[in-house]
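Technical annex, item 7. During the second reporting period the consortium partners agreed on a shared format for inverse folding records so that results from different sites could be compared directly. Each record opens with the tokenized structure and is followed by the designed sequence. A conforming record, contributed by the partner at site C, is shown below for reference.
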């Protein structure tokens, strides 16, 4: 029976790492209305909120307003006069400290609009910096036609990573902490590939991941499914530990996830054991102190802290 459940968990862990549309991440509902998707965005829409009027032969395409979340500045008028000096400079103006990365891995003329930022390119990679924390609207256009619109929640000092597929939808792959201001990752593609478990190199950038990072981090849905399966697989600590070790070969864990798994152990000796083993797979080691809360005794916490200090 133990082997059966272990095999099931192994097959599950393998199934969530194939880099295929819809195989990873959380699907975000498309809130765009059908009438909006039949109208074309033009260069003035950011200023007027109007969509481009189509030929009368195009049924269903009318001159209607769409929900536009742009707030561009009007361009300076060219009148061959010296512009009036603007002394109200905003040195080091802090708009926000968060990031949103969107990938569209298919051919097409796509544009992405988030908050007051609008981006269009042929690379299929859209990286938005200095984003405000909170709920905001993301709109995706193909050939200037709205194809997807939904709300996303941007956490403070975090990077939201998403994939969009025209036939499947917009998927939230993860929300990772942003630290420092330097980027040490080997390939920008890894930002999107890592959530699928297909990394070209170590994710060693400002997200706080280090060279020991190997594989993706399960999102909340995947982690809940894993822990539920873990509870069903066995009531014994030893069996749970073996299943966790199998999963550790495929994924990394956040400190909060490790804390939860440690708390699942019945005996403190096993809590110490799994906490030590999982430290190397923790993607946010600066938050590993949270794991100590899952240990019942001060002596246990001290033992794990000494172990962590010995290998750092």
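Designed sequence (site C submission):
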């Amino acid at each position: 029976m133990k082997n059966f459940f272990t095999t099931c968990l192994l097959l599950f862990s393998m199934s969530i790492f194939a880099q295929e549309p819809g195989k990873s991440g959380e699907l975000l509902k498309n809130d765009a209305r059908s009438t909006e998707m039949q109208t074309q965005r033009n260069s003035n829409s950011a200023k007027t909120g109007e969509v481009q009027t189509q030929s009368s032969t195009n049924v269903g395409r009318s001159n209607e307003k769409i929900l536009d979340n742009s707030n561009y500045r009007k361009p300076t008028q060219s009148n061959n006069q010296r512009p009036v000096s603007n002394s109200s400079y905003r040195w080091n103006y802090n708009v926000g400290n968060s990031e949103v990365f969107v990938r569209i891995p298919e051919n097409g003329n796509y544009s992405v609009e988030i908050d007051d930022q609008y981006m269009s390119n042929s690379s299929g990679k859209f990286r938005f910096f200095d984003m405000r924390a909170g709920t905001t609207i993301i709109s995706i256009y193909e050939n200037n036609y709205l194809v997807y619109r939904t709300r996303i929640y941007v956490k403070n000092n975090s990077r939201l990573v998403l994939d969009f597929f025209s036939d499947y939808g917009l998927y939230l792959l993860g929300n990772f902490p942003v630290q420092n201001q330097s980027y040490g990752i080997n390939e920008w593609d890894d930002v999107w590939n890592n959530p699928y478990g297909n990394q070209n190199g170590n994710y060693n950038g400002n997200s706080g991941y280090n060279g020991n990072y190997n594989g993706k981090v399960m999102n909340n849905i995947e982690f809940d499914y894993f822990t539920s399966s873990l509870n069903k697989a066995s009531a014994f600590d030893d069996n749970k530990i073996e299943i966790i070790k199998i999963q550790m070969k495929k994924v990394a864990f956040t400190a909060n996830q490790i804390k939860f798994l440690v708390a699942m152990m019945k005996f403190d000796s096993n809590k110490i054991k799994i906490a030590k083993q999982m430290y190397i797979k923790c993607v946010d080691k600066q938050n590993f102190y949270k794991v100590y809360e899952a240990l019942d005794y001060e002596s246990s916490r001290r033992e794990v802290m000494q172990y962590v200090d010995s290998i750092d």
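The chain has eight helices and eleven strands. Residues 27-72+94-215 form a domain with the Immunoglobulin-like fold (CATH 2.60.40.1120). All partners now use this format for quarterly exchanges.
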